[in-house]
Write a structure and sequence with these properties.
271 residues; alpha/beta; three-stranded parallel sheet; 9 helices; globular; binds glutamic acid
Length: 271
């Protein structure tokens, strides 16, 4: 009898553990009641700390909020950098990454992505009248970017004669530009627009540069969890169809926002 109960306890424990290991993210999030999202916290208007509320807010936070509400879960935000976002997702410390992350084929080796939720293009941020206007002008010059980004790689390829200095965050690269330690900052134009718009003297800076790279943003998702990926993709499409996407976009990028950016793009909608 004793032996049988020991065996039963083991069987029960095993099924519990196996269940936990094989349960997908959807069940996992629903059962813990929390969606943990990795977001940027110093990249207005995508994700940044609001001066008054001291909370992380932004376009990508509102997207995550929509997903959390649909799941009936609370939203927990964890700051990530360009370098930490993929490891944090693969280690399970976040369920999803909404952090200006380009859907690159090479990143597919470690994680999955949603459909595109934001189109971007890489550019340069320079001092107005400072003599740098194009990628060609960067020969022999220093360029600031972020560790772990596509931007640092793309610029080195586009201009092998520049020296890339990579920082943990884009505001740090911008500070280096202001201090004259680099001659330009490079990353996606809407991130650069956010840096410029939130500076004390936005008129001093200019977004310039020829075409460097297309950078379509996808939400970072755990590898091989198609139920969760289907849920996220269907939710993004629902956001678009219902007009919720346009509402959120207008809040952060509309004509009355600090960082106006015309919406010239359409989400991929499956019939
Ligand atoms: N979208 C680019 C990337 O995923 C640059 C922006 C960023 O570093 O978050 O690497």
């Amino acid at each position: 009898m004793k032996k049988l109960s020991v065996v039963l306890v083991f069987v029960a424990l095993f099924s519990l553990l196996a269940g936990a290991a094989f349960a997908g993210k959807l069940e996992d999030i629903k059962s813990k009641g929390v969606l943990v999202a990795g977001v940027k916290d110093s990249q207005p208007p995508f994700g940044y700390v609001d001066e008054n509320s001291k909370q992380i807010v932004g376009f990508e936070i509102d997207i995550c909020k929509f997903l959390a509400d649909k799941l009936g879960a609370k939203l927990e935000l964890k700051p990530v950098t360009s370098a930490t976002r993929i490891p944090m997702l693969t280690q399970g410390s976040v369920d999803i990454v909404a952090g200006t992350m380009t859907h690159k084929i090479e990143r597919e080796a470690e994680i999955d992505f949603s459909i595109t939720y934001f189109p971007a293009e890489q550019k340069l941020l320079v001092k107005k009248g400072g003599g740098v206007n194009t990628v060609a002008d960067l020969a022999g010059k220093k360029v600031g970017s972020a560790k772990g980004s596509t931007s640092e790689k793309n610029i080195q390829k586009a201009q092998p004669k520049c020296q890339v200095i990579s920082f943990d965050t884009y505001p740090m690269a911008f500070l280096a530009l202001k201090q004259g330690k680099v001659d330009a900052v490079t990353t996606d134009a809407p991130i650069l627009a956010g840096l410029k718009a939130n500076d004390d003297k936005p008129e001093m800076w200019e977004i310039t540069g020829d075409f460097i790279a297309d950078e379509p943003y996808g939400l970072g998702l755990p590898e091989n969890d198609s139920d969760f990926r289907d849920f996220v993709n269907a939710s993004l499409m629902e956001m678009w169809r219902s007009g919720e996407y346009a509402k959120i976009y207008d809040k952060w990028f509309g004509p009355k926002s600090k960082c106006p950016l015309e919406l010239k793009w359409k989400m991929e909608i499956w019939p």
